Amino acid sequence: SQTIHQWPATLVQPVGSPLSLECTVEGTSNPNLYWYRQAAGRGLQLLFYSVGIGQISSEVPQNLSASRPQDRQFILSSKKLLLSDSGFYLCAWSVGLAGYPEQFFGPGTRLTVL
Amino acid sequence: AQSVTQLGSHVSVSEGALVLLRCNYSSSVPPYLFWYVQYPNQGLQLLLKYTSAATLVKGINGFEAEFKKSETSFHLTKPSAHMSDAAEYFCAVSDGGGGSYIPTFGRGTSLIVHP
User: Fold this and answer.
1) Pseudo-torsion of CA B105, A59, A49, A66, nearest 10°?
2) Neighbour count for residue A53 (Cβ, 10 Å)
3) First to last CA, chain A
4) pLDDT in tens, chain A (114 residues)
5) Within the 60-99 window of chain B, which residues sit less than 8 Å (CB to CB) from chain A?
6) Cα separation, A105 vs A46, whole angstroms
7) Residue B70, phi-psi category: left (phi > 0), alpha (psi -120 to 50), beta (remainder)
8) pLDDT digits (tens, 9 = 90+) for B45-91
9) Per the CB < 8 Å rule, is B107 touching A43?
């Protein structure tokens, strides 16, 4: 069966510090991968998605970036965090084929920027 | 283009009462529709999905949803609420357009269950 991992589970970082969040998927090949952010009391905001190694699409211009160095690894990064980057970050995957649009989510990372 | 509207950011019910969470969508093609549940500090979990088969879809934990094309709705129901149903619920639509089939999510409805 497929599983998705995210780490760390929680993170407290000062403003201006770098960020690296990692997501890995097991039990599937060539998945579509996604990064979402949930701010307090708000819905899901799609940040990035990837349909293959090295292929990244950005949905929202910001100081965050994403990379996909391996088929089942997705990394969210920042060089300098802002207060507004605080939130709950979710990684998700879906089957990379037509007709299978449902997404499967990881447990999330709670990021607090102070 | 696709969009989702969830009516009511909060819904409050008594334990044992009917749960009804509303979702209306727009899509230029026959859609895929989903309901997800999110418990505090956890990721989203798929409750059920509609993929153009039966219009009444049964999911986990006793939930079901009915696809009504004429009303462009996909409301989520459960006959009898349980305290453990208290969570955030998200409706999502995907029109299958484009290679990534990225769904559009509603803003979510928080279900509060009173004893």
Assistant:
1) -130
2) 14
3) 38
4) 889 999 999 999 999 999 999 999 999 989 999 999 998 767 899 999 999 999 999 988 689 999 999 999 999 999 999 999 999 999 999 987 666 778 999 999 999 999
5) 90, 94, 96, 99
6) 13
7) alpha
8) 999 999 877 889 999 999 999 999 999 999 999 999 999 999 999 99
9) yes
Instruction: Print burial letters for A79-99: b (CB count within 10 Å at least 16), e (below 16).
Output: eebeeebbbbbbbbbbbbeee
Residue B28, both tokens: 């230029």
Helix (H, G, I), strand (E, B), or coil: what is residue A85?
Answer: helix
Non-local (6+) Cβ contacts of A71 within 8 A are A29, A30, A31, A52, A53
Distance between A106 CA and the closest CA of chain B, angstroms: 6
Nearest to A103 among B42, B103, B107 (CB): B103
- Let me know how long chain B is: 115
The whole-number pLDDT of residue A11 equals: 97
Provide CB contacts within 8 A for A112, sequence distance 6+. Answer: A10, A11, A12, A13, A86
Tell me the residue length of chain A.
114
